[in-house]
């Protein structure tokens, strides 16, 4: 179970990052406009975020293993569509389907993993899970650059097809099935959660291009927030709620979800701009930029395992507060030294410190959420956790782009470096907000909650 869910998570997270270094080649081969290139990235995250809660509910209803396998299969089929896309429109459609498949993989991977391990072993398992997922951080830009320069961009999608087929087979034949507590689907809840997530993510994605005060942005944002408010109101009286609100009475559950929102907002925004800074600011090629991110990303493959082992002894709070605090300080360091004339080694040390802090936080935040609920509610808990993570990522990228736009541009390496420094400060602020949320996690050892 640990191997299957970890590799599936690696595949999903990898595809969120690997496309970035292939955009220039895609533009040349398919004749895509700048807006179309943006949607090859945004379409994936949009469908991913919108369908997470729906996927968790479907897993509870029809079986987590079965729905997980279906999600992996859809992801592999969508990757095939992207690989053979004759035009950018088909590529964007394939990315939408990839995001949908990813939404049916991530929360159910966490739910299956949580159900397979008792509370005392769960933090260790989550540490391994986070380490394998973390490989995607250095591997994504590196693999994208290597494939584009060495073969051709469709191969970043071809690789998913055999891996997805193998994962689906092993999931159906080598793992045990588990279900959630409610056989009925909360259809109004599904509709409201999906509509609300879509409106908010759409507004965040469009904000910097269309203008934050435009009707095209404010309309979806307001409609999305209203739908999410209606979702909360409905969950209070639904007979079979897709997200029981009593879970948020647990300070560990509520704080852990707030942490992952700010964690991924800061981390994804940092990766988004760091890869560009190495190319636009320092003049690196795609492969060299990927190699430059390796020290930052390698920490995410080693540190989570150690943190996962120690969480049981010391609790989640020290790893969340210390980790995100370290990341925030490292991003401020990078903001102070960023410039077009600096050498790579000037930012190498803060890159490692930033990656270490992010890697310390992730398994602790997962543990805080998944050890605060009874086993039968793991699907709903992991769905909420994954949804807030994706919403945080969209929020973070939008906020860092806004900070970049205030002080910089793509006109020159100096202009880009100035904007990058502002974006790094925003990332630091988001990291500090996550550390503050983490300080609310209770200081006590994890134990299995009662099945209520």
Automatic annotation (TrEMBL):
Pfam families according to UniProt: MFS_1
InterPro entries from the UniProt entry: EmrB-like, MFS, MFS_dom, MFS_trans_sf
Keyword annotations of the record: Cell membrane, Membrane, Transmembrane, Transmembrane helix, Transport
Bilayer topology: Multi-pass membrane protein
PROSITE patterns xrefs: MFS
Transmembrane segments: 7-26, 41-60, 67-88, 100-119, 126-147, 153-172, 184-205, 211-234, 255-278, 284-307, 319-338, 344-370, 391-412, 418-441
Residue ranges the record marks as coiled coil: none
Source organism superkingdom: Bacteria
Entry keyword annotation includes Membrane: yes
Domain called Major facilitator superfamily (MFS) profile: residue spans: 1-446
Protein name: MFS transporter
Organism annotation: Amycolatopsis bullii
């Amino acid at each position: 179970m640990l191997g299957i869910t970890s590799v599936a998570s690696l595949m999903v997270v990898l595809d969120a990052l690997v496309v970035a270094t292939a955009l220039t080649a895609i533009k040349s081969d398919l004749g895509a406009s700048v807006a179309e290139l943006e949607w090859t990235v945004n379409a994936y995250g949009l469908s991913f975020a919108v369908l997470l809660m729906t996927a968790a509910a479907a897993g509870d209803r029809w079986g987590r293993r079965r729905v997980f396998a279906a999600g992996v299969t859809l992801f592999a089929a969508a990757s095939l569509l992207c690989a053979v896309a004759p035009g950018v429109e088909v590529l964007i459609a394939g990315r939408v389907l990839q995001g949908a498949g990813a939404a049916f993989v991530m929360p159910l991977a966490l739910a299956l993993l949580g159900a397979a391990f008792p509370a005392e072993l769960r933090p260790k398992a989550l540490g391994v899970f986070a380490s394998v997922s973390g490989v995607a951080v250095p591997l994504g830009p590196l693999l994208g650059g290597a494939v584009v320069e060495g073969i051709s961009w469709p191969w970043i999608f071809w690789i998913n097809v055999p891996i997805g087929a193998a994962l689906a087979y092993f999931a159906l034949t080598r793992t045990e099935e588990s279900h959630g507590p409610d056989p009925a689907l909360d259809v109004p809840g599904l509709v409201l959660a999906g509509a609300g997530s879509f409106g908010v993510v759409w507004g965040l994605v469009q904000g910097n291009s269309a203008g934050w005060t435009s009707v095209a942005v404010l309309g979806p944002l307001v409609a999305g927030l209203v739908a999410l408010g209606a979702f909360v109101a409905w969950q209070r009286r639904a007979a079979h709620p897709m997200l029981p609100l009593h879970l948020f009475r647990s300070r560990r559950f509520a704080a852990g979800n707030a942490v992952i929102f700010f964690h991924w907002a800061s981390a994804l925004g940092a990766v988004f701009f760091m890869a560009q800074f190495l190319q636009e600011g320092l003049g690196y090629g795609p492969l060299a930029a990927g190699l430059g991110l390796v020290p930052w990303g390698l920490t995410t493959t080693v540190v989570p395992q150690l943190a996962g082992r120690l969480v049981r002894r010391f609790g989640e709070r020290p790893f969340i507060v210390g980790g995100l605090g370290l990341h925030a300080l490292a991003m401020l360091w990078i903001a102070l030294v960023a410039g077009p004339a600096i050498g790579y080694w000037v930012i190498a040390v803060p890159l490692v410190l930033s990656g270490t802090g992010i890697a310390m936080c992730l398994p602790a935040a997962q543990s805080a959420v998944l050890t605060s609920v009874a086993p039968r509610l793991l699907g709903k808990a992991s769905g909420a956790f994954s949804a807030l993570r994706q919403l945080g990522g969209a929020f973070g990228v939008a906020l860092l782009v806004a900070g970049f736009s205030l002080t910089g541009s793509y006109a020159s390496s100096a202009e880009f470096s100035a904007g990058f420094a502002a974006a790094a400060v925003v990332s630091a602020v988001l990291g500090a907000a996550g550390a503050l949320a983490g300080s609310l996690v209770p200081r006590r050892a994890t134990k299995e909650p009662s099945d209520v």
